[in-house]
Design a protein that fits this description.
heterodimer, A: about 350 residues, mainly alpha, Leucine-rich Repeat Variant, B: about 130 residues, alpha/beta, Rossmann fold, about 20% strand, globular
Chain lengths: ~350, ~130
Amino acid sequence: MSLDAVVWAALALTAAGSLCAYALALRRLYLVRSDLRHRAGEERLRTVAVALAEGDLPQADEPAEEDLELVAELLARYSRHLTGEARSNIARFFERHGLVEREIMHLDDRAAWRRARAAFLLGDVCSLRALEPLLRALQDPSREVRSAAARSVGRLGSGDAVEPLVLALVERRVPRAVGGQALLTLGADALQPLRPLAVHPEAEVRAAAAELVGLLGEPGDAGLLISRLRDSSAEVRAKAARALGRLGAEEAAMELRAALGDRIGFVRANAAVALGLVGDRASASALLEVARSDEFDPAQAAARALARLYPQMLWSAARDRTSGPHLAEAADLTAAAR
Amino acid sequence: MSVAMATNGTPLVLVADDDPDILALVGFRLERAGYEVLPARDGEEALSLALERQPDLAIIDVMMPKLDGYEVTQRLRSNQATSGMPVILLTARVQEADITRGFEAGADDYIKKPFSPQELRARVQAILGRR
């Protein structure tokens, strides 16, 4: 290769590098300026958006067409902090300006990212018009879209979403954390539709329902959960036992003691945990027996339950070297916590 | 009568939250209800504004940078100038233990996030009306 060619190649590379650097600098400048414009716009429109959320903005002061997107962005953010009438005001704004329908249309877009974005946004517009399209989006081929839809369905606060959400959970169409959080976001509104699911033909649905009733339920739900302690599915029995513990259902103590004799180890373990939580002192000797002689998980759970109920009994039992490792471990943990 | 009331006759409410959206939402509602609002963006700023201006009421977010809401409440309670100032904690942490911790720190009430602006105003009015 001649010297000229090398020089030309070096010059070309330098020029290309300079051009790239220049383009990057320009792009950076553009992004900084647009960010500043965006923030200035937010500052300017913040009061309008808050007044809209509060239903305190006269019709004549509606934001101009060019400001709608920015106000919508602010209101979507505000909706995450608000409950009650303010959310209805936000929904009315989005409905009035056709923004709900626009995002619903985006749920059918070919690009998955746009569908996911629309599914996410629809949770913040607070409009129940979005419920049906979002429930359909729980079947979307993209996991991101389904997850966004689950989160949004929870935020819309409708009991109609409970069964589809539970089904999406048990069919693993949405991540467990997202689906569970959506149901918890629904809160007490989810309870009524959840209860019938505890006797659903599919065991996984019954198990999920039992677990959620334990998280959201009230003392009156103990009867429903006690009946699930005799379910044909071990998973359901275990979840029902745990749920009874969470509810502190003292009336379930006798059935939980019986569940310490279940033929499946994780059911016995959950029953032991529950007995500790409901504070059933009559189960002390049964727990001691499980802690001494059962498999690892039930024995460990029983020893820890005993630590909650009868620390003195636990300590004296733990002194016996033949009592097994779990009583000793629970005794050590209890002593360390004191 | 507090210092703030003495200057312009409008009850002064300190609102401390590191989220500007919450500050805007709470501030707007309280101003519309006839209160003067003193915003703070972290625990330290809230404490220093409270000591300097001695507002009639403080609404304090629990999870804030520098000093959390529990700490701010405790320090307000331990200072003679602000020991009687009503404090409402604004919190997304609604486990029993968190609520108990707030009351143990000296809070008078708590509002859970997400919140209803109407409920917020009613609670503020109820507390200030009792004074």
